[in-house]
Write a structure and sequence with these properties.
2 strands; two-stranded antiparallel sheet; 115 residues
Length: 115
């Protein structure tokens, strides 16, 4: 899955992507998706690289990079795994709160599956 951004408003793109990140983390935390699924759509090094290329905020990229280590944490310190997901969600929420509020006219992000 690839994400295409409409570069009309970078802040809007970032906030929309943060919504997606929060949803993935919430689904992972609740057991609705597996870590493997979360890694396929969000937490893999290629995603962090692509977000860097798109010039998204470094803090967003850093959170994606942190998520890339969840599998290691699950293997080595399974008792800390859920706590780490909660920490990642809190970081995402802090960033969401710092972003501007959408207005009705803004067209932010198109999530489109590319074959």
């Amino acid at each position: 899955m690839e994400f295409q951004f409409i570069r009309k408003n970078k802040k809007c793109d970032e906030k929309s992507f943060l919504f997606f990140m929060l949803g993935v983390c919430e689904a992972l935390d609740s057991g609705a998706i597996t870590l493997d699924e979360a890694e396929r759509v969000l937490f893999f090094p290629g995603r962090a690289l692509r977000l860097t290329e798109l010039k998204l905020n470094r803090k967003i990229v850093d959170i994606v990079r942190e998520g890339c280590f969840l599998e290691d944490l699950l293997d080595w310190l399974p008792n800390c795994y859920n706590d780490e997901i909660c920490k990642i969600k809190k970081k995402i929420l802090v960033l969401i709160k710092k972003r501007h509020t959408f207005n009705k006219a803004e067209f932010c992000v198109i999530f489109q599956r590319l074959e």
